[in-house]
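FYI - complex with iron/sulfur cluster, inputs then prediction.
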Amino acid sequence: MRTTHKGKYILAVEGNPPLADGGVYCMPGGRPFKDTLTEMASEAMAVIAWGSCASWGCVQAAKPNPTQATPVHEVVTDTPVIKVPGCPPIAEVMTGVLTYVVTFGRLPALDRHGRPKMFYSQRIHDKCYRRPHFDAGQYAESWDDEGARKGYCLYKLGCKGPTTYNACSTVRWNEGVSFPIQSGHGCLGCSEQDFWDKGPFYSRLSTLDPLPVEGDADTLGLTAAAVTGGAIAAHAGVSIIKTARDKKDAADARAAHEQDKS
Ligand code: SF4
């Protein structure tokens, strides 16, 4: 098949090859997975790494990674690799990527991590229907409190939506029926690299602290004012420097012109 369809087939890969001890921890057909993978990939148009295991290593590569499980793109280095992460990836995203390649005969635009931009360019948080509650400082504090019943934001219960890039909050799951946040559970960040090693699922992200509290409009306003004030001050500083530089350039140009005339 490889020689007959050289450069015309897509190799879709699930899982990842374990490299320790000669690859003996995954031996489909009696061969190390790594050998079959590199052989089949060598003449493919592209390789699609299905899911977080193939894209990042996922749970097999979680510390201490005794089998040396390795994501596909670190083993396949001479053929383009499209990452379609997720644990599992969304069915519509998978078919969408394949349909794009088959229809247009080229790879979709990829981000710097090798993920199709059309599905991974925004965070879950950017399109989450609970986002107005996040912006208003309305959070569920426990799984069965009043905030949870009202559908408040799940950030404080560990939602990783603000740092996770995927299409869950737009495409959703099971033909658009729902997705984890709509079912009352925070995003685990399963499509992000090393998500198993990035701390407990139910601890809030530390990078967004401190958060405004419900009803504290002054806090929100002061925060916004502080950010705006900082931006204005920074802009003013840059403007002063730029004006001084422009004046010096103009003086230099005039001096050069005078010299030319003389
Ligand atoms: S539930 Fe998660 S993704 Fe949705 S707004 Fe809150 S933090 Fe963001």
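Confidence is low (pLDDT under 50) at residues 209-246. The two ends are 78 Å apart (CA to CA).
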